[in-house]
Amino acid sequence: MMATHSAAASDVGLVRQSNQDSGFAGRFLMVVADGMGGHAGGDVASHVVIRQLLELDRPFDTAEKARKFLREELIKINSLLIGAVVERPELAGLGTTVSALLRVGDKAVIAHIGDSRVYLLRGGALEQVTDDHTYVQRLVDSGRITEEEALTHPRRSVLLRVLGDVDARPDIDTTILSIKPGDRWMLCSDGLAGVVRDDVILNVLVTTPNAGDAAEALVAASMRRGAPDNVTVVVMDDLKEPAVESVRLVGAAAQPISVSATTPAPRGKRKPARTLPVATSEIPVVGSTPPPKPNASDATRDAASESTRSVRARIVKWFGGPS
Prior knowledge:
By secondary structure, this protein is α+β, with helices and mostly antiparallel strands. It has helices at residues 42-53, 63-87, 135-141, 147-150, 190-193, 198-207, 211-224, 298-318, and strands at 3-11, 21-25, 29-36, 95-96, 98-104, 107-113, 117-122, 125-128, 163-164, 173-178, 184-188, 231-239, 248-251, 257-261, 274-278. The chain has eight helices and 15 strands.
């Protein structure tokens, strides 16, 4: 029976003031989320994604079932973020990328949206197994620019797909790939992939046996190149023997949330921005309860709806909204 060892590392980088990336390395689930939204709270968006997905770090009967649950949970998270923006319009722009890998036996279930990436190292060759959902990648795919030109294109950071207040039904890529003995999987934000060349990434992954050391070394490689963005890396190894489990949250998901937000005041006036700390223990985790069947009782449907409204209200409250 194949075993998994995973590790994660994250750093704010050398330019940004806060870390809006989040990462998770679990027994079965690995995730990287790169938040965006400036003062609107990209750190909260990525934090929410990771915290909501934590309960999927468990065994699944089949890869198809895992894919269904993973996709449905991401759609649910997207609705929560949109609902928060509807209630607090100043949060417009809140969003996050997501790259997630859920191991089910000898299968890797991958869900992806945005420009974070999933790589596979197999037999000494490194392959990017996700597509960047960016304007520049579309130009490359259509043959209008080369991959080399894409590296310095002024619009290389423009995203076409994310979770957040963009699309009520986001187009999330999902796939199921085989895991073979000796495989090494790496998930990262664009703070690594957009800064460090693939040949350097390959060299680190090949020459650094320990997953934790490899994750830290890749973050360090970005730092040596100026680290203009937050950088987060998760590495997962397939092992012949079980390794010591070290479930780890990194980046914004591992920190208490503190964001600036305006609080509604009487007669349409706004109070000055204030800082709103939110303890990690207060982050709600929504259950992955399947949608009620057609013959489900009204009480069941009402309970599911109330659960979503309750969590959405908690997200809004993090930004200083009315309770």
